[in-house]
Every structure is written in structure tokens, then in C-alpha cells.
Amino acid sequence: MFERQGRRDFVKRLGYGAAILAIGGTALPTAAAGEIPRRVLRPGVEVSILGIGGAHLSGTKSEQEAIQIVQEAVDAGVNFMDNAWEYHDGQSEERMGKALKGRRDKVFLMTKVCTHGRNRKVAMQQLEDSLRRLQTDHLDLWQVHEVIYENDPDLHFAAGGVIEALDQARKEGKVRFVGFTGHKDPAIHLKMLARGYPFDTCQMPLNCFDASFRSFEMRVLPELQRRGIAALGMKSLGGAGQPVKKGILSAEEALRYAMSLPVVTTISGIDSLEVLRQNLKVARGFVPLTGQQMQTLRERYAPLAADGRFELYKTSMRYDGKPGRKQHDFPSQAALAL
């Protein structure tokens, strides 16, 4: 069993309120002007509060721009890199691998295994594919991707399932930490957690609309805190970023809310240098919102959020991976610049 005390001490300092998940303005670490703060993922392991989402690296104008995005981010102090075996038939991992050549030791590298209904053997084959594409001999974090179906926990924990692959990969030294992701329903996340497996991380959509509809913030974050599992946030702009495009809130406001939650990093889809620099501006010297500011945003957007219109990944299949699908439908982020 992993030693949990360091994580417990960390999450205690985050200071959830008794009635709502309000984060005090002094509870999360800040950084000097111009620096990007880091938070503890596991004892002795810190990651930047902003992470680079791998999927959008195949939505750039060119491979060279994708490489430049990653390298400029690393040079600015961003060290969390996200990806997945299935993103754009492996192109996203390949582009990230090229970008990290000579910079691998500066980043915390994560990718995901895409295994719905598949077995340990297939998962290990995917791991070898990912390592080759990413040009590395190990991952810092390997996560089970898209735990979004009611029967996923049963499939993953079945004899010969992907959980056995997580154990094997760690035993062989090819993976340091393990976790799982999903965007559909907090109840499915809770079913995974109820198995008692020592996951290091758990990734989920977290934004100011989530708090009012099938809320991962309200239901899953407290359970992660109780278990000492590091939370990773995604979809800070509501998936396709419709609230930003419609002028309901700004990209800066959305990112600030997401990064003020008790997560170790907020993974952001970035498909242009413009969007990267926008996000870096928010992350540098980041000062978390106060508990009252967080609650004000929740209440302000609750009437719009209650029917899930800005979180279609929870209610439709638009964002779900499909067997044989060439690529995800990842909307461009270019229109979301501040």
C-alpha cells in the first residue's frame, strides 16, 4: 500500500468548507510573479498547476507549431504533459515525443490506456506503442482512459483486465504512478474508487458549471480528499468552450475557477501559441480565488448550468471515444483567446 500521509497533509491544507467546497484564498500555494506554481501530486513529486492536453496537439496548423507549443510551455515552467494512446491514431503522442526530445527529464509525462472491454494483454501492447511514440522508456503516470460506462468498473477489475496491466507495468518499472479518467457521471467514478485500489490520481471535468449538474466537484473531490488521491482537472471551459464563445464568461475566469479548486493541475487543450500564451498569463504568479469568490461564481452560473447544456460530454456521446474512430471531435480552441 502506498504511503498516504503526505497527500493527507496536503489536502487538509486545502480547507474544504463544511457545507460547500469553498477554497480559501490563502489555502492553495502561490508563486512569485512570473513563476508558475506547483502542487504536490505524490510525496516528493510536484507538478505545474497548468497541464498541456495532448489531444489538441493534432489540431494545430502544423506539426512544428505543436512542437513549439510543448517546448515553449516547458521553458515557461509547465511540466505536466497529458496524452492518450488513441488520440488521432497516435499522432498526438508522436508529436509530443518529438517535442520532448532533450526535455524528457523536465516533465511529468502522462498518457492513457484505452481499454473498454479489452484485456491486460491489449493494454500492455498499447503501453509499448505509447512508449515508442513518446520516445521514452517509462511514464510518470499511466491512466485508464474514459471510464464512462456503467459496466466499466466491472470490466476493468475483472480477471485479466486493465487493472492487472497497471500492476504489471509498475512492477516492470515502465510506469511510476497510475490513475483513471472519465467525464460522464460522478457515480461511475465513485464505483471505481469503491474498489479500494490504490490509485494515485483521478481525472475529471471541473469547471464553474459542473457544480450545478452531475457534479464531480461536489461528489468526487471530497472522496479523493478522504482517500489521499490526487485530483486532475480537465474541461475547464466546458468541453467545446461554448460559454466562452457565447460571452457568458471569459477564458481567464473559467481557468481561474478551475485552478482554484483542490486539484494538482488543470489540463488545458491548447492548439495554438496564442492560446498557450493566454493560459500562461493566467498561471504565472497565480493567486487562487477566495472561497466567497468561488461560491459567487457557482451561484451566478447555476441557472445556466442546471440542465447540462454546457457540459454535453455528460449527456451525449459527442466526446466519447469509439472503436475504430480516427480522431476525437475536439473543437478548436483558437476562438477562446482572451
Q: Describe it for me?
A:
It is a single chain. The protein is an alpha/beta fold. The chain has helices spanning 5-14, 63-76, 91-99, 120-134, 152-157, 162-171, 186-194, 216-219, 221-227, 242-245, 251-260, 273-283, 291-305, 312-315, and strands at 38-42, 45-48, 50-53, 80-81, 108-113, 139-144, 175-181, 201-205, 230-234, 265-269. The strands form two sheets. It has an eight-stranded parallel barrel, surrounded by five helices. It has a two-stranded antiparallel ribbon with strand order 1-2. It has a single domain (32-316), classed as Alpha-Beta Barrel (TIM Barrel). Helix 2 packs across helix 3, helix 3 (91-99) packs across helix 4 and helix 11 (251-260) crosses helix 12 (273-283). The radius of gyration is 18 Å and the shape is globular.
- What's the CATH H-level homologous superfamily? NADP-dependent oxidoreductase domain
Class by alpha and beta content: alpha/beta
Q: Percent helix among the residues?
A: 25-40%
Assigned CATH architecture? Alpha-Beta Barrel
Q: How many separate domains?
A: 1
Strand order of the largest sheet: 3-4-5-6-7-8-9-10
Quick one: biggest sheet?
8 strands, parallel, barrel
| Helical stretch tally | 14
Compressed to H and E, one letter per element, the order equals HEEEHEHEHEHHEHEHHEHHEHHH
DSSP summary, beta strand count: 10
CATH topology (fold) name: TIM Barrel
Q: What is the CA-CA span between the terminal residues?
A: 45 Å
How large a portion of the residues is in β-strands, by DSSP E? Answer: 5-15%
Overall 3D shape? globular
Q: If you average the pLDDT, what whole number results?
A: 87
As a whole number of angstroms, the C-alpha radius of gyration is: 18 Å
Oligomer status? single chain
Give the uncertain stretches in residue-range form.
1-27, 323-338
